[in-house]
Structure formats: C-alpha cells, structure tokens
Amino acid sequence: MTRDLFARHRSVLPDWLSLYYEDPLEITHGEGRHVWDAAGNKYLDFFGGILTTMTAHALPEVTKAISEQAGRINHSSTLYLNRPMVELAERIAQVSGIPDARVFFTTSGTEANDTALLLATTHRRSNTVLAMRNSYHGRSFGAVGITGNRSWSPTSLSPLQTLYVHGGVRTRGPYVHLDDRAFIDACVADLEDLLGHTRPPAALIAEPVQGVGGFTSPPDGLYAAFRDVLHERGILWIADEVQTGWGRTGDHFWGWQAHGRGGPPDIVTFAKGIGNGMSIGGVIARAEIMNCLDAHSISTFGGTQVTMAAGLANLNHLLEHDLQGNARRVGGLLIERLRAVAAQVPHVREVRGRGLMIGVEVTRPGTDRADPEAVSAVLEEARAGGLLIGKGGGHDTSALRVAPPMSLTVAEAEEGAAILERALRSL
Q1: Collapsed DSSP state (helix, strand, coil) of residue 146
Q2: Residue 414 and residue 399: Cα distance in Å, rounded?
C-alpha cells in the first residue's frame, strides 16, 4: 500500500518535494509522543512534524477545541470580527515582551517572515536586509532571497539586496579559534565594517538557534551586541522564532531572550509549534511598525477560527503544565546522555543545543568534513529501531536534528537515546 502511494506521489507532486527514507513512511495516527505508520509500526517521535507537534499528538485539549469550534464555524476571513483570533492575539502580545505589541496571523512561518520583511522594508524605506550565514527563513520568493543556506536556496533572484553576517555558527568559520567574548567582538567588528560599505539596511533577521542549519547558535549575547550597533543606526532586529519560540529551548520562552540585554526585538515571527499541527504563523511588532503600511490588507486564512481555537488551547496547556520547564529538565538529561554516547562514536563531531532542540553533527571520522551519507544511514537505522528524527546542516556540515514534543518524559528520553545510540554505533 505504501509503495503504491509513493508511486502516486511521484506521478503528481514535484520532484523537489523531499521525502525521508529509502522506503518513504506514511504516518497514519499519533498519541502523546508516539506515531504509527500504515503497516501498524509504532515509533517514538523525536521530530514532531518538523518541530510542529509541540505539546503532544492528539492532545485532548486541542482536539476538543478544534471539534467544538468546527461545530460552530471554521472560517470567515479577517473581514469580520473574530473572537478566537482576538483572544489568541491578546495572549501572544502579553507573553511577547514587546511593548505596545500588535499581532498579525498568517498560515506559515514562511508567510510570517515575508510579512516581517514587508513591514521592515516599508518602515525603513530600504530593500537591503542583513541575514545570517547558514540561515533558513522559508520557501517563498522573498524568504529564499534572505536564506543563507545553499541547500535550500533554489534561486539567486530576489526582490531584496541581502548581505550576510558572521556569527550564527559557533564551532566553524573564521572565528572558531576565539573564546566567546572575542568571538562576539569579532562578529560585531565585521558587522560594523559591513555597514560602512552599504546603504542603510532595513533590518537584521536572525534565528536565535538556526533550525534547518543543524541547530547551530552563537554565544549568548551576540544579538544583544548586534542590537547596540543596529539601534544606533535605526536598523530593525527581526527574531525568527518559528522553531525556537514557546519555551522549546528550556532556558527561555523566546530564543531572543538569550540575547535580551538590549531589550526585545522590534519584530518577532512565529509559527510551527503554536498550532500543535494546525497551520498558524504570525508576526508580533510594535504598533508603530505594524501600522506603517499605507494600503489595505487582509488575510483569507490567517487567523481562521478553528486554527485560533487550537492555538489558544495549545498555548494555555503549555503554560499551565510548564512545558518550558520540562524542556529544560528532560532536554538537559537527553543532551548529556547523547554527549556521553558521542564521546565513543568517531563519526560524531559535536552534540549541541539547549532544551529539546538538539543537534548531533556527524562528520567523517578524524576530519571536520560533512558526512551526509552517514546521517542518512543513522536516520534509517533509527527508524528501524522505532525512532523518528530529522536532519539538517549548511555549508560542509551534516547533522541529526532531535526535537521531540515538549511533554517528553524522562523514560521516553532514555528510550530514544538508547535507540539513537545503537544507530550511531552501527556506523
């Protein structure tokens, strides 16, 4: 049945639509931290639909909210007052850390980042954007234009002039030999030099932890130091929290808070986990920035009632059950467990991350060279053992991505680590 579905997939969908595994997997249902395939095989899910099933599969509070709202009305567009949208916007504004916050809902992180770019370039009257090397911000024409990851950039054409800044990857690049303080100073000096050679940019957009790039991140405080330089020149800071938001990193509710000395970003984008599988994205910005557009706009599907009801139930559950704290505690145990394994596996260069956002960088033994074939082999072996994980990486890197639902238990973390250990040792 799966082979037949795969053949049908190949006949009607684009060749560039990526699928995991040599024998692609059809997931039919899930519960908690587990999913099942069409053959009835059970898997521990450590990737959550690309960090999207944030709390748990089939979370009762969310499924109930969806069902009850669907029994009333699914959709009306933003042309009409929408109570669930207002209620979720109020909660998000409250936890955003941005003063006088306004919230605009989209259907995805890509659309959220495109909206942030529209706001920033309009507010600043500039089409120049600063972005980070190794970054990923979505698959639209505008978002691809600021993505600093060749594997996910199918065209060099762009409506924007994009300039790429050092700093998103701590353990590679020209400043790898420096300590954290000197690393930050060098990146700031590079930024200042870059700004001396270009027209004033609209904004810097940055993921606090680079997701598709392999869960890489700078030392804490880098973006605060960048913000000092940007603020002097009126350049906006956009934090792409599509993967890092809502407490996934454990230490902070938002990834930007690891760099919060200078205050919150001017704009925050979010998506993925807030809907726990429902299609929600959005932008948070100060009213001055959000209201800078001088033409009408709406969203047909952004903020639709059924997704807003799901998002509100999911956010309430996350806050009431302190899933951020659970991500910190269980994620810390999982990271240490994987580091102990990595010390005995020559293919593993580094285990990095925070909370339940963990990257395992895989290289050819004895070198710093990427080994994407080994990463694919580990994915296959982990699946055979009953564990689903992701992969990623940027320039000459290859990494496994581990990001379970934030309700992960200690026993499940141990079980998943044991399966991943066997998969890594099989190399």
Answers
A1: coil
A2: 20
